[in-house]
Specification:
mainly beta
């Protein structure tokens, strides 16, 4: 295990790996840095605004592209040249998913439509075309899978739904307590086969490989009577650890919330999370069974990542400490 300490001592709120094996860290006031894997030195700084509100940091598995996501803005960087594209979605939600040759940008307004733009290179000012797809639901789009196939839609009073991002239709209802207006967490595996969602009280993992895409044309009329929707049940559920018994857990004791950092391996077979006493746990993503556990003398773990080869993991801590270790 390697341990790096960065100054100033700010929390590493997001961490990731590039296709070249370098490490990307995001800190509130320092910004986003590409770091050397062997010594933690900064190789490049990425001009990422709104550092205090980073929601996702996504790296392309085969190309030197990194996407920094904020609630209403995405910026995609070429880590070799430093060039970038910025996408804004002032009234709603913005997200990026990677395609084999580049990336796809999404924007959505609540209960309105999904807009998509395909860009082949990061320096492109436009794309191969913009589409606006009506959302056939009252759900608000809040997350997309890395393969740009599905999106997670939240509603205020009923179950969340899985949206087909090519048609805007609901393909499944998700058996979860996620609701708009409440704290939530959603992380998909890099191969888009698994989805982990947290409600503050529990963590559930769903198998997306069992969901069929809606292959009907976008303008096709809905069936009458309406098609029976598939209900997606969790593979397993992990309840919130006891905040009294577990010193160093990620339970927010004041609000009684548990939204731990999560990271899948590239194939969606295992899941890293943080448990009692700040221990990093590796679980089987199909059963929730414990595989192994690591414990270090480190401050609270705020972020986790697994390298594209699945052999190395990284953990970012509250006081600017980065831990890098081998999974096998």
């Amino acid at each position: 295990m390697q341990r790096f300490r960065f100054s100033p001592r700010q929390p590493i709120v997001r961490v990731g790996f590039t296709a070249d094996g370098e490490i990307v860290t995001a800190q509130p006031h320092t910004g986003v840095a590409v770091r050397d894997r062997s010594n933690g030195d900064i190789r490049a700084m990425l001009d990422a605004p709104n550092a205090n509100s980073f929601s996702h940091l996504l790296a392309h598995p085969t190309r030197p592209l990194v996407a920094v996501q904020c609630p209403k803005r995405c910026r995609v960087f070429d880590t070799r040249t430093g060039s970038f594209n910025t996408f804004n979605s002032p009234p709603g939600f913005a997200a990026v998913a990677f395609t084999p040759n580049g990336f796809r940008w999404f924007d959505a307004t609540f209960q309105d439509a999904i807009g998509t733009v395909d860009c082949g290179v990061v320096t492109a000012t436009g794309g191969t075309g913009t589409r606006r797809i009506p959302i056939r639901s009252t759900a608000g789009l809040v997350a997309v899978t890395p393969d740009a196939r599905f999106g997670l839609g939240l509603r205020r009073a009923t179950r969340p739904v899985l949206l087909d991002l090519n048609t805007g239709r609901v393909v499944a209802e998700v058996q979860s307590g996620l609701r708009l207006g409440r704290p939530w967490l959603a992380v998909a595996s890099p191969d888009s086969s698994k989805l982990a969602v947290g409600t503050g009280d529990s963590l559930a993992v769903f198998d997306l490989s069992t969901v069929a895409a809606d292959d009907r044309p976008v303008d096709a009329a809905e069936d009458e009577p309406a098609r029976k929707r598939k209900v997606l049940y969790p593979l397993f559920t992990v309840e919130r650890p006891d905040p009294v018994a577990g010193r160093g857990t990620h339970a927010d004791r004041a609000a009684d919330l548990w939204l731990p950092p999560l990271a899948f391996d590239p194939a969606g077979r295992t899941l890293l999370t943080v448990g009692l006493r700040n221990r990093v746990r590796q679980m089987d993503a199909a059963t929730g069974g414990a595989i192994t556990e690591w414990a270090w003398r480190a401050d609270a773990v705020r972020s986790l990542a697994v390298a594209p080869d699945g052999l190395t993991a990284a953990a970012g801590c509250r006081l600017g400490e980065l831990l890098v270790w081998d999974l096998e």
